[in-house]
Amino acid sequence: MNDQELDALQAEANDFKQTYESVCNEIGKVIVGQERVIEAALTAIICGGNVLLEGVPGLGKTELIKAMSEVLDLEFRRIQFTPDLMPADIIGTNMMQSDEHGRYQFEFRPGPIFTQLLLADEINRATPKTQSALLETMQEGTVTTGGTIHRLEQPFFVMATQNPLEQEGTYPLPEAQLDRFLFKIDVPFVSLTELNEIVNRTILRQRVELQKLLDGPRILHLRTILNKVVVAEPIRDFACRLVLATHPETEFSPEGVKKFIRWGASPRAAQALIKAGRLRALSQGRSHLSFDDVRYFADEVLKHRTLLNYDGQAENVEVGDLIDECLTTLPEQAA
C-alpha cells in the first residue's frame, strides 16, 4: 500500500469506530449492562457470523435482537424451538395451489427463516433433525427445498439461545453445528445496580425509541472495510498457533490442555479469530491487526469448539480456564 491508500484506510477506520460506538450506545439505551454481549453480537453480525447465547431466562436476550433490528433497520423474526417443531416449520414448504384455469401446481411458502435477524429461542429443545434445518442457512445463506435453492437477503444473522439450567428433554447441539457459530456468549446475571436500572427503565418509564443508525447495504459496506485491515504474518501465525494450542497432541498445547482436552478447535476458529480481531481493530480506530485484537474474543471463539475428555468432565474443569492458560503460555513470536 502507498501512503495515499493507507490514509484512506485510516479515514475509513476512524469512521468505522464512530459508527460502531454509536450503534453500541444506542442499543445500550434498552439493554442494561451486558456491554460485552452487545459488543460480541454486533461484531458477529458485521463479520457475517452467528451467535449462540447461553444464559438463564429474563436477561434480555430477546430484547437485544429486537433492539438490534431497530437500530440496524433489519427485518426480525423469532422461532420458539420445541420438541414437536419440524424442519418445514422453519424453512417453509411446497403447497399445492390452483390457478385461474383450475390447473394445480406447487407453490413455495417461505418459513420464518426468510428474514435478516432470526432469533432461535431455546434451540436445544428441538430434535436434531429440526436443528439441522439451520445448518445450510447459517453457512451458505441459502435454503434448498424441492430441488430449488433460495437465497436469503443479506445480511443474515442467527442468534440462538439455550438455558444452562434445565437440561431435561433437551438435545445438545452437535459439534458440527456448534462450529458454525462464530461466538458462544455466556450472558452473566445482572448486578444489584443493573437490576434496579432494569426495573426503572421497564416499569417506571416509557419505552425508549431507538434511532436507525445502519441498514443492510451499509452493513455490507462495512464488511468490505473489514477485509482491508492489514494482518501481518506473525499475527496470523499467532492465531493459528493459538488454535493448535487447544489440541492436546500438538507442541503448542499447555499442560492443562494435554490433560483435560479430548479435541481442540477447528480451522474455522482461526478464521473467526482473524475476522473478530479485524473488527476489534477497526472499533479502536486502527487499520491493522494486533496480538491483543486476536486475544480479545478468544474465549467466545474457542470455548464452544473445544471438548473436554472424561477426566475434564469428571473434575468439572472449566474450558475457559484452559483457554486462558493457552493465552498466557503461548508466546507471540514463533520459536
From TrEMBL:
Gene3D superfamilies associated with the record: Magnesium chelatase subunit I, C-Terminal domain, P-loop containing nucleotide triphosphate hydrolases
Entries under Pfam families matching the protein: AAA_3, AAA_lid_2
Keywords carried by this UniProt record: ATP-binding, Nucleotide-binding
Segments forming domain AAA+ ATPase: 47-191
InterPro entries with a match to the protein in the record: AAA+_ATPase, ATPase_AAA-3, CbbQ/NirQ/NorQ/GpvN, ChlI/MoxR_AAA_lid, P-loop_NTPase
Record's keyword annotation contains ATP-binding: yes
The organism's place on the tree of life at top rank: Bacteria
SMART domains noted in UniProt: AAA
SUPFAM superfamilies linked to this entry: P-loop containing nucleoside triphosphate hydrolases
Entry annotated with the keyword ATP-binding: yes
GO MF: ATP binding; ATP hydrolysis activity
Family label: Belongs to the MoxR family.
Protein name: ATPase family associated with various cellular activities (AAA)
Organism of derivation: Thalassoglobus neptunius
